[in-house]
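# step 3/5: fold
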Amino acid sequence: MDEFARYAIFAVPDGAFFRTASTWLGWDSAAGIEVAHPDLPNLPASEAAILTATPRKYGFHGTLKPPFRLARGTTRGELEAAIAAFCAARPGVEIPRLAIRAMGGFVAAVPATPQPDLSALAAAIVAGFDPFRAAAPPDELTRRRKAGLSENQELMLRHWGYPYVFDEFRFHLTLTGKIDGTAAEETASRLSEHFAPVLPAPYAIDNLCMLGEASDGRFHILNRYPLTG
């Protein structure tokens, strides 16, 4: 039996940006270990451990193919080979500048300006690897719908198992869970200061990461595949 319940294809930065963000979140998906949160004063909403409780298990990442269970008749090895082949045929994407912003009540590092090449890459990944995705169970669909989906997002959920793909896609490297009121904007401002020394400019997405979800719900980086096409 496979040791991972689900797989995902993420963009995961490396270097100082990854280390700083992993410490902030409390989970290093590359090393597969918990790490101590920074003592960051003047956070308007709460302490780091509470702010990061929801995204922590995923590690620092930008979603490209959301977590999925393997479809019947497919294997992890086949998925790995498909990702390697895909990456060998596709070039990377360069984001000139990242900004830390509040979006939809949470805080994330996002492209400062729209990036059509990145959206095209994400769309190709969602569609190209969908044969490996088992249909989402009803309870997962119900949980997604609790967010209050638009008609288009509902269509995406039904067809692709996730509501925020294709024209609903907004690339983001998640830093917090939901934050109420104006505290999200204030937290974004404070985290902008914290991450300023390590925020890459440009940020090159020159590889894709395959991650697996372990039995405790934590995601682990299983491999990086260079985008060399």
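# step 4/5: annotate
The mean pLDDT is 94.
# step 5/5: archive (pending)
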